[in-house]
What does this fold into?
Amino acid sequence: MAQDNGLANATVRRWQLTETLRRLREEAGLTHDQVIAELRKGQGKWSRPKLSRIENREQGVKIAEVEQLLDVYQVADRDLRAWLADLASTGHERGWIVDLRKTCPRTSTPSSTWKSPLSHRGASKPSSCRGFSKPPTTRTP
It folds into this structure.
């Protein structure tokens, strides 16, 4: 299981988190009802639909909730716990392409084809933002 979410976008991070939580529940041999019964002994409001929505990526999950689930699943691996907590804390952040758009001048637009720099088609002067080209100028008659 790869644990590198450096460039992964929010959707990928949420998928990694929820898929891992579901797999850990199944490996622990627990049903939704068993998990909810155990979680209701502690803090927080838990229901079977909530757990199902979390596992199906229909609802976000907080770090404290991830910790509660990992306790019920008896996960002792510190690295795994830290990775899942990191995924929960960054699940709402946008991916690198949005950051790239924020740092480039407004006169630049994303290359429509995202072709390799070795591509001969559409070769033009480099723009002020790597990977972007200036929008084509339109001529009016």
Summary: The chain is about 45% helix and 5% strand. Confidence is low (pLDDT under 50) at residues 1-7, 96-100, 111-134. Residues 10-27 form the longest helix (18 residues). The helical segments are 10-27, 32-39, 48-55, 63-72, 78-90, 96-103.
